[in-house]
Predict the 3D structure of the following.
Amino acid sequence: MIEIITHENMHHFVEEMREAYRLRHDVFVEEKGWKDLSSPDGLEIDDFDNEHAVHMICRREGRVVGYQRMLPTTRPHLLSSVPSLRRLCERDFPQGPRIWEWTRYCVEKAHRERGRKLSPVANELLSAIIEWGMMRNIDSIVIEMDPLWLLRLVQLNFLVTPLGIPQKIEGEDVVAVVAKFDGRTLEMLRTMRGDGAPVLVGQSATTIMRYEV
């Protein structure tokens, strides 16, 4: 199950957010080598962890093992604000209340699958975006990602539009895309998971199904 953490309820999730920031540091600094994000306390926190960010965490046996962050494109976000990422976009930045940026997605090493298969944690995190978005009239996400994810997203029934050609950033190929989703995307993720129940804590299938198209 996925829990949603915002500025309004964060005081209830202080330790969970510390675990999430620690997981981000483990993945992005220790594994991927993004040394600019390194912090002596082992917590990866940036300027976009502000009152507008929406955090999503996945726990197993009480521990945070998966995390992602959503940022509104109607405010400064990574693609619009970070110089190295701005050059990924060769057209007008996708912006609007129905488009959010998906960032800092990470899954603990022990909960990943080899190859192209989505792990249960990864599936729940992606499903959470769709469920959360459908209930808020959000239907698109902006992503800066490895180009190898393009085919995977298409196979998951996202309608993906590249915003430019891939560029080398921190030694890795990165492409910016906008990915549109709807009920077919959620159906595919549920089929792969073998479970039609919502992944968001406290949500009923009836609530979410009302927004599927």
The longest helix spans residues 14-31. DSSP finds seven helices and eight strands in the chain. The chain has a mean pLDDT of 93. Residues 2-198 form a domain with the Aminopeptidase fold (CATH 3.40.630.30).
